[in-house]
Amino acid sequence: MPEMASLNVEFIANAYVAPLTQLQLHGAVRGHFDGGAYYADAQVCQAALHQKDGYDNVPLPIDPAAVESRLDGHHVFGGMLQNKHFGHFLVESLSRLWAFSFLSRDYASVVFYSRIAHMDASSFIPAVLDVLCPGVQLNIVKAPTAVEHLAVPTSISRAGTIQGHPAMAGMLAPARALRGEGHKRVYVSRARLKPFDGMILGEGFIERSLAAEGYHIVYPETLSIREQFALYNDADTLIFADGSAAHLYALVARADQKLFIIWRRKLNYTYVRQIESFGGPTAQGTSTIGELFVPSHAPWGVFAQAKGLPDFDSLKTQLQKGDFITGSGWQAPTQADIQEQLADVEKILNVKLVSTNTLPDLKLVRPEARK
């Protein structure tokens, strides 16, 4: 996480911003993509390079004489806009917006270029920006564009993931002020997402078990962004099914809350580190996934959509030890229940799911502990 002294806003007169036109996916070698901001002489602004783990942002040369689009006035450079995936948007596309709290009111626009060029911004994007940067106009460049005044703030991120910082206090204040219905114990479920998405098998049993312990069961995709922030602000104890909702929670997380994450794959320390960086609690819970089910035709390419089967006894024990449940109302699925759920998913997706136990170590290995 950058120190306060390293934060900066670079001001460029008569700048250019170009969209993404090429994307080489990350694989055996590092991925790369173009798009970025330029000085008046068409040289690349290094401070505007987008940070993304496993990728390099390599803007292509531009010809100022061929630039036909123009934005007059004062604008803040936001970088790449993850315009489809909610979690990636929260992780990658908010890390420069802290600057609006420090700039003059002349700066009332954010300029992005899209990760998926042919796709419009998803509805959650203006909804989030309306809370964090009220009144700020969203501009997405579709072609190389001249910008009269462009401010390029430091990206407060680590390996491409937004991190908490005192400079974000102004940006986050409106979100942290929201209040809702006052639910103190909350379970944030994935159970009603589409079967294509990654899932925790038997999650319905987890929901019923936690409801018996007094937890309010929520499906974040059915709530507005404001309602989600308010829900997290009200809560004293939160349990999340591993997913993008935890990235939104990170923005308003508090140290006095209790947090447990039920992992659907291996434990992802990115979540833990991000939530802590915003002043939130250390997430409890290690992965109990003993088996993953993936489409037989492409088990590795769709890892994010894997269906994880927890060890329900181990999960119960972890929740009890952390004082999240008493365990008196705990329910666990039978093998027949899981097979029935897998059959339903296979029918909906028209794929054959196979089990694999040859995935990477499911236990947490903190980066600093690796040899």
Walk me through the topology.
Layout: E1 9-18, E2 23-24, E3 31-33, E4 36-38, E5 55-57, E6 69-81, H1 86-92, E7 107-114, H2 124-132, E8 137-141, E9 145-153, E10 157-158, E11 161-162, H3 169-176, E12 185-188, E13 199-200, H4 203-211, E14 216-218, H5 225-234, E15 237-241, H6 245-250, E16 258-262, H7 269-277, E17 289-295, E18 307-310, H8 312-321, H9 335-349, E19 353-356
Parallel strand pairs: 3-5, 6-7, 6-9, 7-8, 12-14, 12-15, 13-18, 15-16
Antiparallel strand pairs: 1-4, 1-9, 2-3, 10-11, 17-18, 17-19
Give, in order, the helices and strands: EEEEEEHEHEEEEHEEHEHEHEHEEHHE
The proportion of residues in beta strands is 25-35%
Please state how the strands of the largest beta sheet are arranged side by side: 4-1-9-6-7-8
**Uncertain ranges:** 1-5, 358-371
| Number of helical regions | 9
Main pleated-sheet profile: 6 strands, mixed
Shape: globular
CA distance, first residue to last residue: 22 Å
Alpha-carbon Rg, integer: 22 Å
**What is the structural class?**
alpha/beta
Number of strands: 19
Number of self-contained structural domains: 2
Helical content stands at: 10-25%
What does this structure look like?
The chain folds into two domains: 171 residues, no CATH class; 137 residues, no CATH class. It is globular. The strands form five sheets. It has a six-stranded mixed beta sheet with strand order 4-1-9-6-7-8, with no helix packed on it. Strands 14-12-15-16 form a four-stranded parallel beta sheet, with helices on one face. The protein is an alpha/beta fold and 371 residues long. The longest helix is centred in the last third of the chain and has 15 residues. The N terminus and C terminus are likely disordered. It has nine helices and 19 strands. Strand 10 and strand 11 form a beta hairpin.
